[in-house]
Design a protein that fits this description.
The chain is α/β, with parallel strands linked by helices. The chain has a single domain, classed as phage-related protein like fold. 24% of the residues lie in helices and 26% in strands. It has 9 helices and 15 strands. A 6-stranded mixed beta sheet has the order 6-5-15-11-7-8. Strands 1, 4, 12, 13 and 14 form a 5-stranded mixed beta sheet that branches. A hairpin with a 4-residue loop joins β13 and β14. The longest helix has 25 residues. The protein is globular. The relative contact order is 0.22.
């Protein structure tokens, strides 16, 4: 008679009686804080009914020339005029969608909400697109009438402090303790005022330019006497605006992964290592100068802010729901002489 072997069963563990499910109060997504994006906060928004059209521009020199003359008795007044030109905008339509298959939806459990998550993803993509367009339009050399190029200490190129129209004017990069950012900004402000009669009121900083300024010894020295006992003097956007005598300093901290899908992640700050001094009014209006405007095709979008329009569309052929985001805008550089660009202002 064959002997029987007795196989001892292992004790049941938690994994044998419980199927792991996601926590309902926790999920992780690398969604950037929307306050890091600045493209919608710099220039006034202009709602437009047509995708493309013209707008009027007035010649600068006529407005700053004194033409009034004394009038003799029974004589006509002195005649004058001002020149005008036109420019154009074109509100490009940008769109992206995420498809949620019925099988995927049937398998989803809390805390995932596919419609919500797709909407959040598309919203972030909309912010990225506008920030990238802002950088491509405004935060680069060669588009503004006046600029400085940041150079390292000891560079072969001569450092020239005085701005010149259209020339390469080099200054020390602001991460160098020997640089003079307060004087640099003041000099740039004065130059714009001299050329246009308009005082700049805003500055846009890339994150690395901002980091250099908050640690700069000249700036710390200016505010250190305002500290209170037990609290260190702190440099922030508000104190920088006060030092530069501006209404606002805005810092763009949004990043972009420039690598293709599947490749090693390569992140970079979208606004680069630059700074932009400019004039922009609080709102658009007739005879209102501004370095730039954002034209929003509101008749197509259904809103006047350029906010992403999100739609849910049933795609029966794919047995899926499509969540689609769409926007239509043109970030237009209107007056290149109302901006002063600090190119590569940190190493």
């Amino acid at each position: 008679m064959a002997s029987r072997r007795r196989v001892r069963k292992a004790a049941l563990g938690a994994a044998d009686v419980y199927i792991s499910r996601p926590l309902t109060n926790l999920s992780i997504a690398y969604a950037q804080d929307q306050t890091q994006f600045v493209a919608d906060r710099i220039f006034p928004i202009v709602p437009v009914g047509k995708q493309a059209d013209k707008y009027w521009k007035y010649d600068r020199d006529s407005w700053n020339r004194s033409l009034m003359k004394k009038r003799a008795d029974n004589a006509e007044s002195q005649g004058a005029g001002f020149g005008t030109t036109t420019d154009t905008y074109f509100a490009h339509v940008w769109a992206l969608h995420v498809d949620i298959g019925d099988q995927t939806r049937a398998n989803v459990e809390l805390p995932m909400d596919m419609d919500r998550d797709a909407t959040n993803f598309l919203t972030l993509q909309g912010f990225l697109r506008r920030e990238l367009t802002f950088a491509e339009t405004y935060m680069k050399a060669g588009v503004w009438s006046f600029s400085y190029d940041g150079v390292p200490n000891g560079a072969t190129a001569a450092v020239t402090l005085n701005p010149t129209d259209g020339a390469n004017n080099n200054i020390l990069q602001w991460n160098d303790a020997a640089s003079t950012p307060i004087e640099d900004v003041r000099r740039a402000k004065t130059y714009i005022m001299l050329r246009t009669g308009i005082k700049p009121n805003k500055m846009v900083l890339g994150q690395q330019a901002y980091d250099a300024l908050v640690d700069h010894p000249d700036i710390i020295d200016r505010i250190k006497y305002g500290q209170t006992p037990g609290a260190a003097a702190q440099v922030n956007k508000t104190t920088l605006a006060a030092l530069f005598e501006l209404e606002e300093v805005v810092v763009g901290g949004a990043i972009q992964n420039t690598a293709e899908e599947g490749a090693t992640e390569t992140n970079a700050f979208i606004l680069g290592k630059h700074a932009l001094l400019l004039y922009a009014p609080r709102r658009a209006g007739l005879l209102t100068p501004s370095a730039g405007y954002t034209f929003v095709w509101n008749k197509y979008l259904g809103n006047s802010t350029g906010a992403l329009e999100v739609s849910k569309i049933r795609v029966n052929l794919r047995k899926a729901d499509r969540i689609e985001g769409e926007t239509a805008f043109d970030q237009r550089l209107v007056a290149p002489d109302l901006g002063f660009f600090f190119n590569g202002i940190v190493a």
